[in-house]
Design brief:
The chain has 414 residues and is of the alpha/beta class. The protein folds into two domains: 2-118, P-loop containing nucleotide triphosphate hydrolases (Rossmann fold, 3-Layer(aba) Sandwich); 164-412, Rossmann fold. The chain is 36% helix and 22% strand. Helix 6 crosses helix 15. It starts with a strand and ends with a helix. This is ABC-type sugar transport system, ATPase component.
Length: 414
């Protein structure tokens, strides 16, 4: 049994053939010398049987997303896999790349290899699947033959849930337009995205994995560059070429991947709080006393459960880590707060505290952009919801009595 993960587990600095044989290298006459020619020949044989187009001599870092998926398949077949588990294999692929992968999957099926294909894209399930199992909140809602079920029936099974999971937020008076995003384009990532956010408004952004949600906000924050487009805040055109520019203009981003992109591992709560506050550095040194005062305020306001503020941030629970990360942005009193999956990996108690904090920011007239894969969260917290699909903002929905089933249909495009 082999698994192909959504994020390819490959070594970028090695060639295609070296990745296939990693840990099981072929040697020649000398036992400690890798026989690269023999490895490349055998890898090419597998590639030819699958009718792939995959150069074996190039470094993995030079491959496209679809080629990396193909390489993972080659690795699995080299290990004589009888069952292949594919986790959201097309989430980062374009239409043509997806078609090519579908062809390969059918080829594998015809060769007698069992495929477990995990996907939010229901059209793919119906294109290549024989049976489908619907999971909701970690539970199986049943297994069905593809011939015996429709897309609508699957969606109904996906969304049926206890209404108590929806957070009942209080309404906030919404003011004038403050943030305007016009025709943001990054070729191959997002295309011609336009929307506005009013003071006190929570503008939700939803869509399937790979729809371009996080990529869009990374552009707004200056972490990625746009090829075209304009951003205005309170009528002023902003030049954002880096996260430093975004922070200077009053834009804060609570990123999706806190461990990789927001936490300073091995450092304490105080130092993690100080990351975005350059005014508390004297030269290259942190003004520890001043930052400790600010940290005390955050710990008390957000009820961060820690032994003390000198505790390493990785020793905290996921919810308390998130509170520290959100808290660091409250110090500067930004105008725009972007929350990318704000309650991911967070317990129920911390989740509600984060919701209350978001509403408090809205009451203070801040612009809130919230990306979430949690449908009850998206529906209960947002005033309007932008629907992302294939890198485009295809719809903006007024959140008035809209059903979860309808939103999923919009995400899928059915």
């Amino acid at each position: 049994i082999s698994t192909i993960y959504q994020d390819a587990e490959l070594v970028d600095s090695l060639t295609v053939s070296d990745n296939v044989y990693l840990g099981d290298e072929l040697t020649g006459r000398l036992p400690f010398v890798v026989d690269s020619k023999k490895q490349t020949k055998k890898v090419n044989e597998i590639i030819e049987t699958l009718k792939m187009h995959l150069p074996t001599g190039v470094l993995v870092e030079e491959l496209s997303a679809s080629q990396k998926q193909m390489l993972q398949i080659v690795k699995a077949l080299y290990r004589d896999a009888k069952v292949l588990i594919m986790d959201e294999p097309t989430s980062s692929l374009g239409m043509d790349e997806t078609k090519a992968l579908m062809k390969i999957v059918r080829n594998l099926r015809d060769r007698g290899i069992g495929i477990v294909y995990i996907s939010h894209y229901l059209e793919e399930i119906f294109e290549i699947g024989d049976r489908v199992t619907v999971l909701k909140d970690g539970r199986s809602m049943g297994s069905f033959s593809i011939e015996d079920i429709t897309v609508e029936e699957i969606i109904r099974k996906m969304v049926g849930r206890d209404a108590s999971l929806f957070y009942r937020r209080k309404k906030v008076d919404i003011g004038d337009v403050a943030l305007e995003v016009k025709n943001i384009t990054s070729r191959g990532v997002v295309e011609n995205v336009t929307f506005s956010v009013r003071k006190g408004e929570v503008f939700g952004i939803g869509g399937l994995v790979g729809s371009g949600r996080s990529e869009l906000v990374n552009i707004l924050f200056g972490a990625d560059r746009a090829d075209e487009g304009e951003i205005f805040l309170n009528g002023k055109k902003l030049k954002i070429k880096s996260p430093q520019d975004a922070v200077k203009h009053g834009i804060a981003l609570i990123t999706e991947d806190r461990k990789k992109l927001a936490m300073l591992g091995g450092r304490d709560i105080v130092e993690n709080t100080a990351l975005v506050h350059s005014e508390n550095f004297k030269g290259f040194l942190l003004d520890r006393k001043e930052e400790e005062k600010l940290t005390d305020d955050i710990v008390n306001k957000l009820s961060v459960a820690a032994q003390d503020k000198s505790q390493k941030i990785e020793e905290l629970s996921g919810g308390n880590q998130q509170k520290v990360i959100i808290g660091r942005w409250l110090i500067d009193d930004s105008d725009v707060y972007i929350f990318d999956e704000p309650t991911k990996g967070v317990d129920i108690g911390a989740r509600e505290q984060i919701y209350e904090l978001i509403i408090e920011l809205a009451e203070r007239g801040k612009c809130i952009i919230m990306i979430s894969s949690d449908m009850p969260e998206l529906l209960s917290m947002s005033d309007r919801i932008g629907v992302m699909r294939n890198g485009r903002l295809v719809d903006i929905v007024q959140n008035k009595d809209i059903e979860e089933e309808d939103m999923i249909k919009r995400f899928i495009g059915v």
